[in-house]
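Handover notes (outgoing to incoming on-call)

Open items:
1. Pimeloyl-ACP methyl ester carboxylesterase: sequence verified, structure written out, both below. Nothing else pending on this one.
2. Nothing else urgent.
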Amino acid sequence: MAFLEVKPGVELYYEDEGEGTPVLFIHGVWMSSRFFRNQIPHFKEEHRAITLDLRGHGRSSKNQDGHTIKTYAEDLHKFIQKLELKDVVLVGWSMGAFLVWEYLQQYGEDNVKGTVIVDELASDYKWPDFPIGAFDLATLTHFMREVQENREEFLKGFIPLMFKKDVEEEEMTWMLEETTSLPAGVASAILFDQSVVDYRASLPSIQVPTLLCFGREEKLIPVTAGEHLRDNLPNSELVFFEDSCHCPFLEEPERFNHELERFIKSL
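Pimeloyl-ACP methyl ester carboxylesterase structure tokens:
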């Protein structure tokens, strides 16, 4: 457990265990590294398993500015540089997928061995030519207002949408702690930016091998999103998790770890 200053006044909390190929897990919007609690013990045995909290999230510094995918990707680049990570496998869950694509767009693929995309679309927004998007303007506006006016109750309704089965009280408690750790203004700012970024045009140029992991029982992201990514990413494979919704690494951790292990060994 440690903190790393990636820019003046921006300290990212991270955990770094094991040796070998660096496998870097990147969480979703409002979430934290804690959601990958079933991955570190497994992957540290043969790899260098790393999780981090993005700026404003989890235990990282609560900066009031810089809450865009572009800036988060810049933070990620500095993080990788300062830890001197080589040939990284980037695992991006939900919003974390946008960071992966933004990182590749800004810094190229030379230092990336492979990428893993977990339950995300090329864009969350329902553009006129992208009807499978998760949010339209009315939904996004509603979410942003709920974050400002009724956040805890809103999250009590939102968090169960990430899981196939009912969320137990103990699980809900720690997830609420993590998702309410951000200042409300920060939560709204990054929600908006991550909801309107669009990586459709850049997907065909990505050559690095990609594993796509999608829960078959998704309530937030349509299953067709995985098929769209598979059809537009030249070097990708798609794996469905039959008993998972938005969090296969929590809902089917053994199978998720197996599929990710298999993918890493194939690189």
